[in-house]
Inverse folding.
């Protein structure tokens, strides 16, 4: 482990399980103190297909995994749909640690439905999670990042935010991911625009998404049967790469978890930073609109 993030504080939203947990573990392995957040300290229900389901995973489990590996982390419960909890989250982290260096906007909401069948509430919650909440948390974090003299904001993007493959696949005709994809596309543009606004403050803003898909407890019900997924370690490693260079060297990128490490010949580590993962070439069936260099 390089301990390149030693002395830095990172906030990773939605880190009780899945992608958020993996990112928290990887940043902690490089020395960061990680604030691990989710809606509550206990597993909480999520909406899937109009039904309330409880998905496994807690922030305290994530903290334990980090501490067992020798890292530093603490748990904060914050329902990002609750204005009071959301608006106080950045201050809560700073009050605990004295500063903030890294913000990872990972928390999300995905309940796919075709446009003609989608409830307005689902539309509004999707827009909130991928536009309003990253905007508000970034806005609250910027003064603290400026105070540090450097900072990193990483938004978790998606290849669905790119133009779909033509001729349209059966998946695009029926998956119901249009609103999710549209907000991810907007989030990519938000990333690039905010990067331009903050580059002179030495605050880097980048987006990282899976090159294909990652099998997580929350995504399992959304992926078609037999879909080939990728290990989460490559996304976590790519997020780490977006959190260690000055903004003048790396900002405004929309990158993807297999393409970027492969193109840049980056050595990907396990979540605890100890083991080398094998190089993993992006599959030929990945969205051809993904640029390998992230530019």
């Amino acid at each position: 482990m390089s301990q390149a993030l030693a002395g830095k504080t990172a906030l990773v939203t939605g880190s009780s399980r899945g992608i958020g947990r993996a990112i928290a573990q990887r940043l902690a392995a490089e020395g960061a103190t990680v604030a691990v957040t989710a809606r509550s300290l206990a597993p909480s229900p999520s909406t899937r297909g109009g039904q309330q389901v409880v998905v496994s995973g807690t922030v305290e489990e994530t903290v334990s995994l980090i501490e067992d590996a020798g890292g530093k982390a603490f748990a904060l419960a914050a329902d990002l749909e609750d204005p009071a909890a959301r608006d106080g989250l950045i201050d809560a982290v700073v009050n605990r640690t004295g500063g903030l260096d890294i913000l990872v906007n990972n928390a999300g909401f995905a309940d796919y439905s075709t446009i003609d069948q989608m409830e307005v509430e689902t539309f509004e919650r999707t827009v909130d999670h991928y536009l309003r909440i990253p905007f508000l948390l970034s806005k609250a974090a910027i003064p603290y990042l400026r105070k540090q003299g450097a900072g990193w904001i990483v938004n978790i993007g998606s290849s669905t935010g790119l133009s779909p493959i033509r001729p349209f696949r059966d998946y695009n005709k029926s998956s119901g991911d249009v609103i999710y994809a549209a907000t991810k596309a907007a989030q990519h543009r938000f990333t690039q625009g905010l990067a331009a606004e903050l580059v002179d403050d030495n605050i880097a803003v980048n987006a990282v998404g899976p090159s294909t898909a990652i099998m997580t407890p929350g995504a399992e019900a959304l992926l078609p049967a037999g879909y080939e997924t990728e290990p989460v370690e490559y996304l976590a490693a790519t997020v780490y790469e977006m959190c260690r260079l000055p903004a003048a060297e790396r900002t405004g990128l929309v990158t993807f978890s297999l393409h970027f490490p492969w193109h840049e010949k980056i050595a990907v580590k396990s979540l605890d930073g100890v083991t080398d993962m094998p190089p993993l070439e992006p599959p030929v069936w990945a969205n051809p609109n993904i640029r390998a260099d992230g530019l």
Observations:
- Residues 120-148 form the longest helix (29 residues).
